[in-house]
Amino acid sequence: MSRTRPGRDDSPDRLYTLTGGRSSSGSDAFDLVTLVVAECDPVPGMQSEHTAILRMCQYPTAVVEIAADLGLPVSIVRILLADLLGTGRISARHPRSAYRLPDPDILEQVLVGLRNL
Amino acid sequence: MDSATSDRRETRRTLSSTADNGLKIVIVGGFGVGKTTMVRSVSEIRPLNTEETMTKAGEGVDDTDAVAGKNATTVAFDFGRITLDAHNVLYLFGAPGQERFWFLWDRLFSGTLGAVVLVDTRRLADSWYAIDRLEHHGTPFVVACNDFGGPSHTAEEVRAALDLSPEVPLVFCDARSRASSKDVLISLVSHLQTATLSHTPEPTP
Ligand SMILES: Nc1nc2c(ncn2[C@@H]2O[C@H](COP(=O)(O)OP(=O)(O)OP(=O)(O)O)[C@@H](O)[C@H]2O)c(=O)[nH]1
Ligand SMILES: [Mg+2]
């Protein structure tokens, strides 16, 4: 079942091309479990990674799942997502409890969910 | 994989459109201690694998210089997913607990609910470092002893060897079992509730 680890065999040139050589501004907002939802369909001529993300995110999909699916490091995916967010093509549902001690209501919901597994 | 299992996993591949809150729990432990096995046991998807690139200073690396390998390293981790209800989705991350991976953690797992330290009682020392770090960071955790059929140890023996403080739950598990792995997660979340309660100011009478 194990796939080759993403990113390892990608040449730096390819990764550079994917991100246009830009760095991360704005991409920090994406947590590993931020859920991404496409707000439009892919359009012809779009960068293939952007197309893939929009297809994948017809339903909410976590950043980390997108990275695994594209076979790209999370850091690169964050940059791609920042592009798409900037142009309104996706929306992002960020985790609600980013604090050390989470909301007791959320914990109760987690417990109920786990017990029901 | 039997068909009932794969059916269940296939039908749950896509999250509901109402899903809006991702939650994280980390399973940390030494090499081969059963992290991936535990993720697989409870996950509704086949465990997936990805990686994050970081600078040696522990900062996220998002620029392409770093991706090209300058002063950067990558850590691979696997993860699974549990849909809890219409809104909440729990992601489980399996991550190596060795010293040389720890500088990645702040970035990778910030905002995590808590951690499961998975230990093999034949190699308890492998988990010392992870426990130290979690205590230092104030990340709540439980210790789960994975049963590899070695000589059995009492909870007291394991606690003493790990120098665990009394409030940290210690449980025994079989990571290959869904029910057992689920119980470990429940013990962690119950522990989190206790921790949260003891930090919530009592309402004044
Ligand atoms: N007997 C026994 N074997 C187990 C148990 N859990 C895992 N194993 C086996 O131990 C081996 C290692 O398990 P993994 O889940 O790959 O361990 P890991 O911690 O993910 O390993 P790395 O990612 O390589 O560090 C596999 O062959 C598992 O089948 C257990 O509870 N009991
Ligand atoms: Mg593993």
Overall tally of structural domains of chain A: 1
Q: Spatial order of the strands in the main sheet of chain B? A: 2-3-4-1-5-6-7
CATH domain class of chain B? Alpha Beta
Q: Supply the CATH class of chain A.
A: Mainly Alpha
Q: Which percent bin holds the helix content of chain A?
A: 40-55%
- Gross geometry of chain A: elongated
The count of β-strands of chain B is: 7
Distance from first to last alpha carbon of chain A:
24 Å
Biggest sheet features of chain A = 3 strands, antiparallel
The CATH topology of chain A: Arc Repressor Mutant, subunit A
Please identify which CATH superfamily of chain B we are dealing with: P-loop containing nucleotide triphosphate hydrolases
* Arithmetic mean pLDDT of chain A: 82
User: How many independent structural domains of chain B?
Assistant: 1
Strand content of chain A: 5-15%
**Overall SS class of chain A:** mainly alpha
Element-level helix/strand string of chain A: HEHEHHEH
What gyration radius of chain B follows from the Cα positions, in whole Å? Answer: 18 Å
Give the strand order of the largest sheet of chain A, numbering strands 1, 2, ... along the chain: 2-1-3
How is the main sheet of chain B built?
A: 7 strands, mixed
Compute the average pLDDT of chain B: 82
Pfam family, one (chain B): ATP_bind_1
Family (chain B): Belongs to the GPN-loop GTPase family.
GO molecular function (chain B): ATP binding
InterPro entries (chain B): Gliding_Motility_GTPase, Gpn, P-loop_NTPase
